[in-house]
Amino acid sequence: MTAAREGSPRIVRREDYAPPAYWIDTVDLTFDLDPAKTRVLNRMRVRRNPDQPAQPLRLDGEDLNLARVLVNGQGTSFRLDGGQLVLEKLPEGDEPFELEIFTTCAPEKNTQLMGLYVSQGTFFTQCEAEGFRRITYFLDRPDVMSTYTVTLRADKAQYPVLLSNGNLVAQGDLEDGRHWARWEDPHRKPCYLFALVAGKLACRSQPIRSRSGTDHLLQIYVRPHDLDKTDHALQSLMAAIAWDETRFGLPLDLERFMIVATSDFNMGAMENKGLNIFNTKYILANPATATDTDYANIESVVAHEYFHNWTGNRVTCRDWFQLSLKEGLTVFRDQEFSQDMAGSPSARAVKRIEDVRVLRTAQFPEDAGPMAHPVRPDQYAEINNFYTVTVYEKGAEVVRMMQTLVGRDGFARGLKLYFQRHDGQAVTCDDFAQAIADANPDSELARLLPQFKRWYSQAGTPRVHARGSYDAEARTYTLTLRQSCPPTPGQPTKEPFVIPVAMGLLDRQGHALPGTERLLVLHEPEMTVTFEGIDAAPIASLLRGFSAPVILEHDLHDDELRVLLAHDTDPFNRWEAGQQLLLRRALAAIRAGGPVHEPLDAAVLQAMREVLRHPTLDAAFKELVLTLPAETYIAEQLDEVDPQRVHAVREAMRQQMAHALHEDWVWAYEAHHDNGAYQPDPVSSGRRALTGLALQMLCLAARDNGNPVWPGKTYQRFKDATNMTDRYQALSALVVTGHELAAKALERFHDLFRHEELVLDKWFALQAGAPDRGGDALPRVQALLQHPDFHLRNPNRARSLISTYCHANPAGFHRADGAGYTFWRDRVQEIDAFNPQVAARLARALDRWRKLAEPYRSAARAAIEAVAAQPTLSTDVREVVTRALAD
Questions:
Q1: Cα(119)–Cα(408) distance, rounded to whole angstroms?
Q2: What is the dihedral of CA 430, 431, 432, 433, to 10 degrees?
Q3: What stretches of 593-616 show up as alpha helix (H) in DSSP?
Q4: What class, spelled out in words, does domain 316-457 have in CATH?
Q5: How many CB atoms lie within 10 A of CB 595?
Q6: How many Å from the N-terminal Cα to the C-terminal Cα in the chain?
Q7: What is the mean pLDDT of residues 699-705?
Q8: For residues 502 and 543, is the Cβ–Cβ distance under 8 A?
Q9: Cβ neighbours, 10 Å, residue 409
């Protein structure tokens, strides 16, 4: 049993932060790698922090066997206290001393995948947030920055590749078929950025010369049979390096930059200095095995981890409460990169809409639930639980608002000042915001900075209430904006935020009214602005580009929304108008009660038809407009949720769109299905996305009328496809619509890709997320648990089946008999026994149980209480379920 499972969890509070009592200047690590018993010799140069009172040195450790402790080469007394190694008799004064610690660990038994572990015969590490303590005793906190020298020793036949951070300075052979390699990292770093890899790996190398004229070596290491799937990741890395130097003047600062991929990884990727370790999901791609979405995600995640080299590594977090300092900022940077790579304004808008959909469907519910927390949290029991969409995606929106308030060039100036002030330091979110403001002293951000920083300290999603009035006699239009924010756990009242509201006015024919485009900055509870010289009542287009992460409540009528959908010059608000029209119909049908008939009226269907048939709109944009709001997003608009009712209404809307627009879907398919040789560019990807939606709608209509033509065409497309996107979309159309050909296609798909792990993840996820018909979803998932290709201990595979069912199949999961919750309970407990991080993320599937109608609410609560009653829960899961049950 680890310390994390003993007694009540320790609450860590931001207000209790104190600098470390000791600094560790240098670290010299020697590893004798063995899966059963790895020996770690840790030699550190340590000195007292003169700014802190004299006290013992307390080093963190977990699941380590301690063999020796020496101070300046001599034995010394020590004690173990609650997972910490405590040294009291240390040299006096401020002079550095040498501390040597010798430990052993068992990487092959490390199922948590934190610290040093073995995956498929290869050694990997994952140290963020607190994994380094599972490798050696250390001051495991991000504000202790050291230079590292690492020597790796291992059997040469079993582990021919030996990697660590920095530069390879020496290597050679040893007796008994062993060999060694020594790495030196010239940059000071916190221990969470330490990494090592050892195993049988193939390498793709690419020398590059930067814009500044320096030479570098880029390397991607994978299992030998995956080498042909690394080109896109390498191209993405080169693009990210060039973009960061061009956009922000930030060059690559390493002789070599390495990426290694593993299929056993709790996260998406990790930005260890110079040696990034990735989940294979975000590295491996070729047209036969990866979809357009996979290609886009790889580009984004590779860029994200590379951008951390400056925003996270060169300047890091003072403490883990400042996590968004690196994550929110770097998400913003990878979003900007992806938009710039997209090229055209339309493609940029599609990327922005996709990012906002994630925020609304994942972060807004988090902000409204028991795990609500500020972008900069005030306390935690387990820091792993705060790698959240609030810290990442909402944190990125906070950075985006800064750029909006100071301008693109002003933000670049601010980032430059940030690095001038803090390069090589561990700092705070306040330090970052101050640098952006100081570089733009005349900006609204500088004027309102103390208030703006409430975005870091206050949880919850603000609401902006907009009301407009037109005075025909005075030819004026008056817009009133009012803000509010609901209570969240621990924060019953909220102070006003600083909310940038980008806007413009249109006339009733959809023409933009000159001089009305502006950026309003709402920082009081209410503000009013008057536009003069307006000849007729206008239509307000508010929150353009989603200029702030808020919920906008406005008084626009349906006919006004249709004008925005047809004519708004802002693509985001054009999409948003369509979503609002669809959302209003869904909510009306849900609240009406009784049998569900046809929720969509003729005017809305015609508006959708006009978008689909529009001669100049991009296919990718059309697909976004014509995709119905998600069931989870619809549910968030309701005070009490009957998941089966929400599902029934949304399905009825899909059926209506499938039938009423049948000929339009036929046209869309015929006009977009042939795209030539595969390219994952925005235009081709958009055409494929619209083709996939058309196929799904045509199969849905065919299911209802018994016409076999389109299912037959879809199955033939599935068989003939020359790329994974086309193949998977055809398979999905058959599975989602429940056609009898689905079983045959699923079997064929499995036969084709039985040896491709990432493709099998898609196969499991598609079935786990397929619509529930008569209660068949849960039995299907339970049967797949027994499939020979299902491996519970592989995080990707567990997420593909179990998390997809619990998080992304509301109608299948929320069963009236509570069986879905029982399944959730058992899986959370089962996974928590060996991987608390994965279990805690699964546990959050019931965050919003209080919104559920009966009988769901009581059954969900009983399941959560059953998990909470377990005496051996990890801190990770206990924090989640305890907060879920808190009043």
A1: 44
A2: 50
A3: 602-613
A4: mainly alpha
A5: 7
A6: 30
A7: 93
A8: yes
A9: 10
Tokens of 374: 């500020």
Name the band, by pLDDT with cuts 50, 70 and 90, for residue 1.
Answer: very low
Which H helix or E strand runs over 477? strand 476-484
The residues spanned by each domain of the chain are 3-263, 316-457, 465-554, 754-887
* Residues 227, 189: Cα–Cα separation, whole Å: 30
The token pair that represents 138 in the structure block = 């250390």
* Other CB atoms within 10 A of residue 97 CB: 17
Cα–Cα distances in Å, from 242 out to 249, 250, 320, 730, 766?
Answer: 10, 9, 30, 37, 37
321 in Cβ contact with 384 (< 8 Å): no
**For 77-117, what is each residue's pLDDT tens digit?**
999 998 999 999 999 888 999 999 999 999 999 999 999 99
Contact (Cβ atoms closer than 8 angstroms) between residue 238 and residue 253: no
Largest CA distance in the chain: 96
The pTM of this model reads: 0.98
What pLDDT, on the 0 to 100 scale, is given for residue 887? 83
Asked if 541 and 511 touch (Cβ cutoff 8 Å), the reply is no
- Asked if residue 280 lies in contact with residue 263, where contact means CB atoms within 8 angstroms, the answer is yes
C-alpha distances (whole Å) from 283 to each of 144, 294, 308, 415, 765 are: 31, 9, 17, 29, 19
| pLDDT for position 4 | 46
pLDDT above 90 (res 649):
yes
What's the rounded Cα separation, in Å, for the pair 874 and 277? Answer: 25
**Rounded to an integer, what distance in angstroms lies between the CA atom of residue 424 and that of residue 414?**
17
Pick the CATH number of 465-554 from 1.10.3720.10, 2.60.40.1840, 2.60.120.260, 3.40.50.300: 2.60.40.1840
Q: Which of 140, 70, 60 is nearest to 102 (CA)?
A: 70
Beta-strand relationship, 215-222 and 202-209: antiparallel
Separation between Cα atoms, residue 481 and residue 553, nearest integer Å: 10
Q: Which two tokens stand for residue 183?
A: 């790495």
pLDDT at 719: 98
Closest Cα partner for 299 from 216, 219, 234? 234
Catalytic residue numbers, as ranges? 305
Amino acid at 524: E
High-pLDDT (> 70) share of the chain, %: 99
Domains 3-263 and 465-554 share a fold: yes
- What is d(CA 726, CA 665) in angstroms, rounded to the nearest whole number? 17
Check: CATH 3.30.420.140 for 3-263? no
Which CATH number is 754-887 given? 1.25.50.10
- The Cα–Cα gap between 577 and 822 comes to 39
Residue 70 backbone phi and psi in degrees, to 5: -125, 140
Span 527-579, pLDDT tens digits: 999 999 999 999 999 999 999 999 999 999 999 999 999 999 999 999 999 99
> Cβ(191)–Cβ(140) under 8 Å?
yes
CA 630 distance to own-chain centroid: 18
With the C-alpha atoms ordered 604, 605, 609, 611, is the resulting torsion angle positive or negative? positive
The C-alpha torsion from 92 through 98 and 102 to 106, rounded to 10°, is 100
**What is the percentage of the chain residues whose pLDDT exceeds 90?**
97
H-state helical runs in 57-122: none
